[in-house]
Amino acid sequence: MTLTKLAELNGLDPSACRQAGSRVNRKAEAAIADFLGVAVAKLFPDRYPIRTSKILSSKYDKPNASLKSRPQNNRAA
Questions:
Q1: Rounded average pLDDT over 4-8
Q2: Which of the two residues, 76 and 50, has the higher pLDDT score?
Q3: Is residue 76 predicted with pLDDT exceeding 80?
Q4: What is the rounded CA–CA span in Å between residue 1 and residue 49?
Q5: What count of other Cβ atoms lies within 10 Å of the Cβ of residue 37?
Q6: Whole-angstrom distance, CA of residue 37 vs CA of residue 46
Q7: What pLDDT, in 10s, does the model give residues 14-55?
Q8: In the 3-class helix/strand/coil scheme, how is 5-32 assigned residue by residue?
Q9: All residues at 6 or more sequence positions from 15 whose CB lies less than 8 Å from its CB, including other chains
Q10: Residues in CB range of 40: below 8 A, 6 or more apart
Q11: d(C-alpha 14, C-alpha 23), whole Å
Q12: Burial of 11 by CB count in 10 Å (0-12 exposed, 13-18 middle, 19+ buried)?
């Protein structure tokens, strides 16, 4: 089995599984893991569990300076 053929059998772009080693492609990762009989998280441990943020500590968060978050003066003029 080649990575190209595996991608085609799973309805993916022929290059999808070849690129899974260097680029995130959830469908290709799942196809490879399923073929090997290994959990996706074990095969790609740096990508799973899926994280929505890369910030590891709140000390790196920038304060929200949005105008919407500032208190409004609602007094009539």
A1: 96
A2: 50
A3: no
A4: 28
A5: 6
A6: 19
A7: 999 999 989 999 999 999 999 999 999 999 888 887 776 665
A8: HHHHHCCCCCCHHHHCCCCCCHHHHHHH
A9: 4, 7
A10: 29, 30, 33, 48
A11: 14
A12: exposed
What's the whole-number mean pLDDT along residues 5-16?
A: 96
Question: Smallest Cα–Cα separation from 20: which of 38, 7, 35?
Answer: 7
Amino acid at 63: P
From CA 73, how far away is CA 30, in angstroms rounded?
Answer: 53
Closest CA to 28 of 49, 51, 4: 4
Q: For Cα atoms 62, 68, 73, give the angle at the middle one, nearest 5 degrees.
A: 125
Instruction: Report, as an integer, the average pLDDT of 53-71.
Output: 59
Q: Which amino acid is at 46?
A: D
| CA 46/CA 35 separation, integer angstroms | 20
